[in-house]
Amino acid sequence: MFEMSIVRIGLIILIAASLGAFWYLDTVFYHWDGVLPQPEEMVVETVPESSKNNTIFKKPKEFVPTNEWQIIQEDQPIPPGLHVQIDLQTGEKKAKLMEGNLNNKSNSLAITDSHKPENFIDPNSMPDNSHKFRSYEQLKDDLKDLNMTIKSDMDVMDGLSRKFQEQMKVYEDSDKNLQNILTDLEYLLHQVDTAEVFAKNKGIQLIIIPCINSNSSYLKSQGALLLGSAASNNQKVQIASLKNDVIPLLLKHIDNEFTFSVQKNCIFALSSITRRFPLAQKQLIDNNGIQIFMSVFKSPISKFNTKLKLKVTQLLEDLTIEIEDAKLTFKEETNKQLNIEAAERVRQYDNLHLKDKLVENGWCNILGDEFIILSNQIPLDEENNAMVEASGKSLLALQNLCKVKLQGNKEFYQSFYKLETYYKQLLQNDVFFDELYQLTTELTNTYDPVLE
C-alpha cells in the first residue's frame, strides 16, 4: 500500500514537471510551435532602416554601353574598350562606346571639368582623325580652344635664348636667373636635333660667343661647355663653329686664363669641334694650338694642372689615332663611293702633317718626361692610370718618330720596367689592370733598344 502511494506521487510530480516545461517554452518562445519566419523577414524586422544598404548585397546591374554617355554607378563594372569621363568637380563618371574603333580593347580616359566655357569643344566629339598624320602646327591649333599649350624642345630652347639675351643686359656675376638659363640650355643641347637648330638660329653668335668674350669667368666656362655639348658628334655644329671662328677664342683662354673651369671647358669644346674634322684641326694648328697645348705641360705642377695635362693628352691621343683609323678604313673599304670618301679623308689628314708638328714641338719628350714622373709616383691613382694609358697609346702611334727623339734616354726606358712590374702585381688581384699591363709590356718591347 505504501509502495503504491510512492509510485503515484512520482507520476504526479513527473506530469507537473512536464506541464511546467511546456508552459515555460510557450512563454519564452512566442509561437515556438508555429512556422519559423524566413531569414529575409528576420533581417527586415531586426535591422534598422538606415543600415539596410550596408547589409543587403545586391549584384550591380550590368553596364550596357551605347553611343550616348551614361552614368557609371558606384562599384559598377564596365567592359573594356569604352570612352570614360571623370568630372573632377563632382566625381561623376560616364562612359560610352568608342567611335570608329569598336574593336579597341583598352579604355580611353578623359578628365573633364564641370565648369566648361560655352564655346568648349569636347575632344571626344571631334572627328576621329587618329589615323591621319597631323603636323606640330595643327596639333597646336587643335589644342588652342582648350587653353592648352604644347612646347617642343625647340620652343623651350628659343624661349631660353630670348631670356638669355634679355638677362645679359642687366647681368651681374651672381645672377641666378642667367645661370639657370645656361644650365637648361646645356641640357637641351646634348640632343643632336636641338643642337642643330640652335646653331641654325645663330645660337653660337648670340649666346656662346658673348659668353666666351665676357669678363665673367663663369660665363666663359659655361659658354665653352655649351659649345662642347652642342658640337659633340654633331657635324653641323662643328661646321657652324668653324665658320664663326670660335677656335681662336677657345685657344686664347687656354693660354691666358688662370681659372681651371674655363681652361677645362675650352679644351672640352675644342675636342668636340676638332674630332674627325680635319678642317677644324687645320684651323687649330694654324692658330698655334699645338704650342698652346704644350704650354700646359710647362706650368707648375698642381692638382688642376694635372687634370688639364690629362685632357690635352687624351685629345692629342685621339687626333693621332684617328689618322691611323682613316688609313685603315681606306685600305679595307670595298664600296666604291665610300672608298673615294675615305681616300679624301686620308688626303686631308696627310696635308695637316699633325704628327710631324707634334714632334717638332717636343711632344715625344713631353710624353717621355710624363712616364718618368708617373713611374716615380707609384702607387698611382685613377687619374694617373688614365695618364699612363693616354701617353702610352700616343707613344705607340708616334713610335717611328719618337724612337729617334728618345733614343739613349735610359731613365725613360726604366720607367716602362717599373710600370710593367707594378701593373703585373696589380693584375694578380684585379683583371681591370690587364690592359695597362699589356700596354706597358708593348711599350717596353717597342722602345727598349736591348729588346729590338
From TrEMBL:
Question: Where does the protein end up?
Answer: Endoplasmic reticulum lumen
- Phylogenetic lineage: Eukaryota, Metazoa, Ecdysozoa, Arthropoda, Hexapoda
Q: Which GO terms describe its cellular component?
A: endoplasmic reticulum lumen
Q: Which domain of life is it from?
A: Eukaryota
Q: What is its main location?
A: endoplasmic reticulum
Alphabetically list the UniProt keywords. Answer: Endoplasmic reticulum, Glycoprotein, Membrane, Protein transport, Signal, Translocation, Transmembrane, Transmembrane helix, Transport
Instruction: Please give the name of this protein.
Output: Nucleotide exchange factor SIL1
The entry's family comment says:
Belongs to the SIL1 family.
Task: Identify the InterPro entries for this entry.
Answer: ARM-like (IPR011989), ARM-type_fold (IPR016024), Hsp70_NEF-Inhibitors (IPR050693)
An annotated GO BP: protein transport
Where, by residue number, does the polypeptide cross the bilayer?
A: 6-25
Record GO terms (molecular function): adenyl-nucleotide exchange factor activity
